[in-house]
Write a structure and sequence with these properties.
The protein is built from 18 helices and 22 strands. The protein is α/β, with parallel strands linked by helices. The strands form 5 sheets. A 6-stranded parallel beta sheet has the order 2-1-3-4-5-6. It has a 6-stranded parallel beta sheet with strand order 7-10-11-12-13-14. Strands 17-18-19-20-22 form a 5-stranded antiparallel beta sheet. The longest helix is centred in the first third of the chain and has 26 residues.
């Protein structure tokens, strides 16, 4: 009897090779850096720490990747995930006294606001952090490394203060996304900041430490602006420091197909962190195959976009299909008109469960201004094809882009309605567009009509120069889109497409018949209320109309009551959006389009609401890339004068007050 399994194996191996060959790179890619890892007996040790708040579904990929690098180079390596430990502790004892879930993404701003974090989170988290401080003190590592995100800085500040007290000889190193920016806001002076891809820089740091080098001031190790690490040549992540059973997906891991982004969206800072490059489909397949043999069947690609190179992604899919592995995978993606129905069939056959798209807007004007490189018809077609082959879709939206107007919000609402049957699993509406020093918007304020003054007593709360787009305008847009999403429930759809279910207490929607109409995009004038108070108030009171219009076009006759309560909205959306706005919206419309409106608004501007936001000419790689991209390599895209800016801030705080009260009680016909 012949040993058939060996023939089967050979046949399968050949099938995989045949599947990969059409998608293989013809030549070796140039201008990539190989990370040299030379093993030696070392005296230096390093402890990597992941602090909350962050994802809890799988082992932290970044820490596992760096731990593999340092371990392979001979450095004693420790790694702890305090994020998953804190998450489990919060579930076990429920962190009594907190009326919200700190790991619910809609509340992650509470980790960033002092009064929120120290009042609600820190008293519980401190107990756990102290336990880990004691563990690490016993280890006495030479270097303690933290991954820094905006939402875990305050826990890091606490642990660093303890280590400086108890381990004064240990060096503090920071890396991660927040280290791509200026380091002046960390609140302490670390010994090292690793800015850029960490695999080579962490070895540079440890080689210095091993040789006895110590710096009197923070040493910033910044990746060369043109460097790109060769991802195909890196060692596999080291998962030995973690218990997979601690995580929500015990049989899953994070992975990366690429780094960087092929797009240059104007609102994004991540796209400028590093230059795009991807792994080959064969390389990714080999890693998946090894993990599959160890029982791992779920894979989450952490890339900015998993389809940055649609050819290599398809090659990977063809290889998975030929290998007959039964896996599930997901990742972030761009909508792309080149991805047709046949392409989606290959994604589905390879185990793609769902894709998360940065859709951002349904308005072609806003998509163009964002430099998304797509139009709404491509978005709709991608969602239709994806759903037809059994792949679900997740949307990310960004409201309040500086050039966005109510008609653009209406286009986004229209798009959502048109794709509502196409396998939508979840819709993220965030808390609006950010203008930051490390995105194109922040470096080109004049072009995008953004004022040099912020408005609303919170850092980064930008306002347009015409005062028609402030954080309160964005609050109404985010809140009304969530009201619409909460009513996208028909024909078997999920009833929880967003996680802002608390908003159900803020409105009462009563349709007068059960009907769902198909709609087309339309041009409509939403300048209906005309109070003639000031540009801020005159535009703000008209922000409600896109929702009222879309509900009529899709559901027919209805009645709705909506409340804006400054205290409740602050609890739900934080100070990043909410302010002293209270409003009551009562609206009714019949089958013929006859409507009655009864609106009342009251807004009280806080003292010293205007702040001059100074962006200096810093030297981060992100800023360098932005300036190259926009043709301003040597200086910021606008001149600034601190004294002039402070004078302007003083003038506005003394003379510009947008407080208002307004009532609108009228009828009309659509």
């Amino acid at each position: 009897m012949t040993e058939q399994p060996f023939n089967d194996y050979d046949d399968k191996d050949q099938r995989i090779l045949d599947a990969l060959l059409p998608y293989a790179r013809k030549t070796k890619r140039a201008n990539l850096t190989e990370v040299e890892i030379n093993y030696a007996n070392r005296q230096t040790s390093i402890c990597f720490l992941m602090l909350p708040e962050w994802a809890v579904s799988m082992v932290p990929y970044n820490v596992a990747r760096l731990a593999a690098i340092t371990k392979n180079a001979g450095y004693k390596t420790y790694a702890y995930d305090l994020n998953i430990a804190a998450f489990k502790a919060s579930r076990n004892n429920k962190w009594n006294g907190i009326d919200f879930d700190p790991w619910n993404k809609i509340y992650n701003t509470r980790w960033m606001i002092d009064e929120e974090y120290y009042a609600h989170i820190h008293p519980h988290l401190r107990i756990l952090m102290d336990e880990y401080v004691d563990k690490i003190v016993e280890l006495n590592p030479t270097v303690i490394g933290f991954t820094v995100y905006d939402c875990n800085l305050k826990p890091i500040q606490y642990m660093v203060s303890r280590f400086k007290e108890l381990l004064p000889e240990s060096l503090i190193a920071l890396g991660g996304p927040s280290c791509h920016r200026s380091h002046t806001w960390f609140g302490f002076e670390p010994d090292y900041i690793v800015s850029g891809e960490g695999e080579e820089l962490v070895l540079t740091m440890l080689e210095e430490v091993e040789s006895g080098v110590r710096h009197k001031k923070t040493k910033i190790l910044r990746q060369d602006i043109n460097q790109r690490i060769n991802l195909d040549e890196l060692p596999s992540p080291d998962y030995s420091h973690f218990d997979f059973n601690d995580y929500q997906l015990s049989n899953g891991v994070n992975m990366e197909f690429s780094r960087g982004c092929i797009a240059k969206c104007t609102f994004c800072d991540e796209t400028h962190f590093w230059k795009f490059r991807d792994r080959s489909g064969e390389n990714v397949l080999n890693e998946v195959t090894k993990l599959y043999a160890e029982g791992i069947t779920n894979f989450w690609f952490l890339d900015s976009l998993v389809n940055g190179n649609i050819k290599q992604l398809r090659g990977f899919c063809k290889g998975v299909i030929a290998s007959e592995m039964k896996i599930k995978w997901t990742g972030w993606a761009r909508c792309d008109g080149r991805m047709d129905l046949e392409y989606y069939k290959d994604l589905a056959a390879s185990g793609c469960d769902h894709l998360s798209y940065g859709v951002e807007s349904g308005s072609n004007k806003v998509l163009r201004d964002m430099a998304k490189g797509i139009v709404n018809t491509e978005i709709e077609q991608n969602f239709k094809d994806s759903h037809s082959v059994g792949i679900d879709n997740v949307l990310m939206l960004i409201f309040g882009f500086p050039t966005e107007e109510p008609i653009d919000v209406y286009d986004t609402m229209t798009m959502l309605w048109r794709i509502r049957f196409y396998g939508i699993r979840y819709i993220s509406t965030g808390i609006g567009c950010f203008v930051a020093e490390d995105n194109i918007l922040g470096q080109n304020k004049e072009k995008y009509n953004i004022s040099q003054l912020t408005y609303g007593n919170s850092h980064g709360m930008w306002i347009t120069s015409d005062f028609k787009n402030s954080k309160l305008h964005r609050l109404i847009r985010v809140k009304t889109i969530n009201i619409l999403i909460n009513n996208l429930t028909s024909r078997g759809m999920s009833k929880n497409l967003t996680i802002r279910q608390n908003l159900n207490q803020d409105y009462k929607f009563i349709p007068k018949q059960t009907m769902y109409k198909d709609i087309e995009y339309e041009i409509f004038d939403f300048n209906i209320c005309k109070p003639n108070l000031n540009p801020f108030a005159d535009s703000l009171v008209n922000e409600i109309w896109p929702l009222l219009r879309i509900l009529y076009k899709t559901r027919g006759a209805y009645k709705i009551d909506i409340t804006f309560d400054s205290q409740k909205d602050t609890r739900e959306f934080s100070k990043f959006l909410a302010d002293n706005l209270d409003a009551s919206i009562k609206f009714e419309i019949d089958e013929e389009g006859n409507w009655k409106a009864d609106f009342s608004y009251k807004y009280v501007q806080e003292e010293n609401a205007w702040k001059y936001e100074r962006y200096e000419q810093k030297q981060t790689n992100a800023l360098k890339r932005i300036r190259i991209l926009t043709g301003q390599e040597d200086e910021p895209l606008w001149p600034f004068d601190l004294k002039t800016g402070k004078d302007l801030e003083k003038e506005y705080n003394e003379t510009v007050d947008f407080s208002f009260e307004y009532k609108f009680n009228e009828t009309g016909k659509w």
